[in-house]
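hi! just following up on the protien thing from before. the input was this:
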Amino acid sequence: MVSAKTKLYFVTDVHGSEKCFRKFLNAGPVYQADVMILGGDLAGKELQVIKREPNGKYSFTLRGKKYDLVDDADLESAQQFIADIGYYSYVAEPGEIEELQKTEKLEAFFEVLMRERLLKWLQLADERLRPINKPLYWMLGNDDPNSWAPLLRDAPWGTYAEDGVLKIDDSHEMISWGYANPTPWETAREQNELELLASITNLAESVTDMGNAIFNLHAPPFDTGLDLAPMLSKDLVPQSESGQVKMVPVGSKSIREVLENYQPMLGLHGHIHESAGFRKLGRTLVINPGSDHTTGALNGVLVTLEKNKLNGHQIVRG
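and the predicted 3d structure came back as:
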């Protein structure tokens, strides 16, 4: 347990970014945080194939730009760049990826690459945080495979947060839930609003001191300004109005209901990368630090807690 004041450092939606994850591990100690929390969506979403050319060189196209790599040193640098923006790279022989697609094995292959990076991160967290005894809590988000939950539970360092009420210091309890309300992409961990309400209520009923509680819920509460995302057409194309992308609230109505009914001290959220900020729902401060993982920039929030009091909060970026 820690002192009367607890400084909490919260980051979410790193989406496979090597640079963001390493920054997270470094930033907790730099900010002198007593507790580090990594919200959901650890997994990246993209596989970047690097072609091995017949002349011993390599090439790939990323975001419309073609890269030609002369030697293994270039290849190593390119793979690090790809990992830093949250993609998974693979050096493929001619026709190899096409064969995986043909035999419907590409998805399973991609999951192997994702798992390898996660296991690497778990080991790195152990190496960096165990020697300084820095508490770490993490959970899955809607984009993460459910099969990762046992890996986080068995991590050499850190506590998996979704299993129940956790005491993060002498005064503050935390519940966590990484499922989101339905999205157009039908991601791995979604629940309809009634299911979300039941799951979070079940956790909340075990909290003993709601006035000092933290609700770490991946989806933001509906229509709070922390959940604004581009309006999409049926074919998932962002819609514009007067030359500007039209933004609409897409957060969870059940999560808003839970926060308004229980009035915990603090709500920690993510999921909607574009909507960083702070809001108040009654006495509850709700926060979404946002995410810029594809640039390698890390958004986080520092919150200083006391018993029955929030002593300060700020968004930090690095």
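Residues 49-108 form one domain.
The chain has a mean pLDDT of 95.
cheers
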